[in-house]
Design a protein that fits this description.
This protein is 23% helix and 22% strand. The protein has helices spanning 25-31, 40-45, 48-62, 94-99, and strands at residues 3-8, 11-18, 21-24, 75-77, 85-90, 113-118. A four-stranded antiparallel sheet has the order 3-2-1-4. Strands 5-6 form a two-stranded antiparallel ribbon. Strand 2 (11-18) and strand 3 (21-24) form a beta hairpin. The longest helix has 15 residues, at 48-62. 19% of the residues are buried.
Length: 149
């Protein structure tokens, strides 16, 4: 199941991707006689019940019982638009260590370096990357993302 946050008339909406497109979570739940929150974070706070509800909306949308919008017509935002803090690890795989100019390290000797970023550093699909004026380099990578809490 793929959850999304997308924009409708300037407002963020929670959605779930189905075979037919993106179904608005709140409207889709209403179409099948249920209530749903209007944000992905509120859905996740419901735990397994929230995920089960999103799965029901996805199934109803795939079956054509809930209206959808084509994936390409939606302006996607970050799935969790305003996370409090993002915890990251640098130097946790060999290629990244050597591409930065450091010598290779034996796998059992690699020590990732933790760092944090503010939630404001998250952008949506296709949004421009803003390079801070005091920065002369830009690095990219992601291996895994997890929502905790």
């Amino acid at each position: 199941m793929k959850l999304v946050t997308y924009v409708v008339e300037g407002t963020d909406r929670a959605g779930v991707v189905s075979e037919r497109g993106i179904a608005d979570l709140q409207h889709g739940a209403g179409a099948i006689g249920k209530d749903a929150p209007d944000s992905v974070i509120e859905l996740l706070r419901l735990g397994d019940d929230g995920l089960a509800l999103a799965s029901e909306v996805e199934a109803a949308a795939s079956a054509g019982r809930v209206p959808t919008i084509p994936d390409g017509d939606a302006v996607l935002r970050p799935v969790l638009p305003e996370p409090q803090t993002i915890y990251l690890l640098a130097g946790n795989y060999q290629d990244h260590i050597t591409e930065s100019g450091a010598s290779p390290v034996e796998k059992d000797k690699i020590t990732p370096r933790p760092f944090i970023k503010p939630g404001s550093s998250v952008i949506g699909s296709g949004d421009p990357i803003m390079i801070p004026p005091d920065s002369d380099t830009l690095d990219y990578e992601i291996e895994i993302a997890a929502v905790i809490g």
